[in-house]
Amino acid sequence: MATVQELYELWAGRAYADLEEALGHGLEPRGREWLFELFASLGPQPGQVVLDVGARNAEHTVRLVREHGLRGIALDPVPVHVQRLREAASGLDVEVLEAAVESMPLEDATVDWIWCRDVLVHVDLERGLAECARVLKPGGRMLAYVNVATERLEPGEAALLAEGVAAHNLDAAQIESVAAAAGFSTEQTIRLESEWRERMLEDGEWDGSDQLLRLSRLRRRERELSERFGTPAVTAYAAGRLWPIYHAIGKLSGVVYVWVRDA
User: At a CB cut-off of 8 Å and minimum separation 6, what does 6 contact?
Assistant: First the structure.
């Protein structure tokens, strides 16, 4: 570890200034649009069936169906999401199902593709991936985007995310092991680290300073706000605001898997 004198010499030195200048240039991070490009590169064919698990407002389902001429199934367990799904998918070849990924009302081997973004952290991983493997045709692919913990995420931080945003499956090795046990082979593993968050910052789609300001205010008023709104609401709010911060500073890392259903 540097002494105080060495530290101040570093701060005042040329290398520190050069480092600051180097970090002022973007690294052309891949954004969220890239996931659609990856899906397209896998070769979906018109008439095939894509299942969007955790479809929320059907934004992704509708886009995949329209861009590739697919038949869609939009699945979500939340009733308010299902209503939005039905409205968004009206007039399209999209079936809307109110169900959880752990228990899907679909026949075996009836789906060609599964699109799964930001869902696996919230589910019973063994049951959910087993169901995905069951409904996929042999050779069918599942495209899954997840955020996983890095070595920088402290145990207390992981516990807060589990309690506040139900993020229970943050271990990449566990996810990969469960996928293999469910009957998937890994075709691609793409580690995005903080790229999506960098791109959102560069494009002005996310304001990290606003999130930090609100978290700072929350910490100073935590007792008062917990009494007013309830501790669960405050915990969920804090975890939800910390999630993108942790992503930006490398405590969470984005990972994309392309899994193939074994024959």
Answer: none
Residue holding tokens 């930006």? 248
Do residues 54 and 78 make contact, with C-beta atoms less than 8 angstroms apart? no
User: How far is CA 46 from each of CA 3, 43, 259, rounded to the nearest angstrom?
Assistant: 65, 10, 21
CA angle centred on 182, ends 179 and 186, rounded to 5° = 40
Q: How do the pLDDT tens digits run along the chain, 263 residues long?
A: 678 888 888 888 888 888 888 888 888 999 999 999 999 999 999 999 999 999 888 889 999 999 999 999 999 998 888 888 888 888 889 999 999 999 999 999 999 999 999 999 999 999 999 999 999 999 999 999 999 999 999 999 999 999 999 999 999 999 999 999 999 999 999 999 999 999 999 999 999 999 999 999 999 999 999 999 999 999 999 999 999 999 999 999 999 999 999 98
Residue tagged 């009957």 (tokens): 183
DSSP label of 1: -
Q: What is the rounded distance in angstroms from the CA atom of residue 123 to the CA atom of residue 144?
A: 13
Place of tokens 């509708």: 62
Query: Residue 232: how many CA atoms within 13 Å on its side-chain side?
Result: 1
∠ CA 133-177-36 to the nearest 5 degrees?
Answer: 55
Helical pair 231-248 and 222-229, crossing angle rounded to 10 deg: 130
DSSP state at residue 44: -
140: three-class secondary structure by DSSP: strand
| Angle ∠(81,87,92) on CA atoms, nearest 5 | 115
